[in-house]
Amino acid sequence: MHKAGILAWALVSAGLMAIGAFGPWLTALNIISMNGWDVQKRQAGVLLTIALLGGLAVFLRRATTSGGVWAMIAGGAGLLLTLYEHHHLTSMFAGSDPRFADIAKALVHIGWGLDVAIAASISLALSGLVSLFFEPAPRRADSTPGVKYDPNVPTIPAGWYRDPNDAALLRYWNGFGWTTQTAKPAS
Questions:
Q1: CA nearest 25: which of 108, 98, 136?
Q2: Coil, strand or helix at 77
Q3: What is 106-131 written as a DSSP string?
Q4: Cα(84)–Cα(88) distance, rounded to whole angstroms?
Q5: Which residues of 63-77 are buried (b: 16+ CB within 10 A; e: fewer)?
Q6: How many angstroms separate the CA atoms of 159 and 179, rounded?
Q7: H/E element holding 20?
Q8: Which of 75, 116, 154, 173 makes the best surface tag, with the fewest CB within 10 Å?
Q9: Contact status, residue 141 vs residue 155, Cβ threshold 8 Å
């Protein structure tokens, strides 16, 4: 996998974390759908902030290994927050009257928004971990380490070569371009 693919993976994961903040965190009989902003406004805002800052940090630091570290930090923070919220919401039903808790568990379940946020947080952390094992590709295949291109140094040595316009003549190449000097080749 290339660094660009890992970057795309991390950015999609951060985007899905943000989508999870707006998706339903609780649903009941497919009639009631409450998202994180209805149920836990502050936690949904924190999750959205983690997703945006994590995605921004990964994008800005994409050429270094710190981009992967930021992805792991944002993914881990998002995972801790979403798992806490999942536990908090499910324990809300368990802490009520035992008869009501069974009915509530049967009618109300955790929505896809929180599930997407959990999965995206795991994915973002994994993309950061994977990025630590890949080196960025060299910029050019023909580049040699330690050798820099200098436009003042000729790439083809100066000398007499076949004239590109007339094969019966020789033309002098000065290292940078053809001159007006021509000669007949020795027979």
A1: 108
A2: helix
A3: HHEEE-HHHHHHHHHHHHHHHHHHHH
A4: 6
A5: eeeebbbbbbbbbbb
A6: 11
A7: helix 3-22
A8: 154
A9: no
Residue pointed to by tokens 């998002």: 78
Q: How many CB atoms lie within 10 A of CB 101?
A: 15
| Number of neighbours of residue 170 by Cβ within 10 angstroms | 18
Residues 112-153: pLDDT tens digits? Answer: 888 899 999 999 999 888 888 876 555 554 555 666 767 777
Distances, alpha carbon 114 to alpha carbons 34, 62, 87, 108, 124, in Å = 11, 28, 11, 14, 15
Give burial (CB, 10 Å; 0-12/13-18/19+) of 95.
Answer: exposed
Half-sphere exposure of 133 (CA within 13 A, CB side): 5
- Concatenate the DSSP letters of all residues of 169-183 into one string: SEEEE-SSSEEEEEE
Residue with tokens 């790439």: 155
| pLDDT tens digits along 70-117 | 889 999 999 999 898 888 877 776 666 666 666 666 666 778 888 899
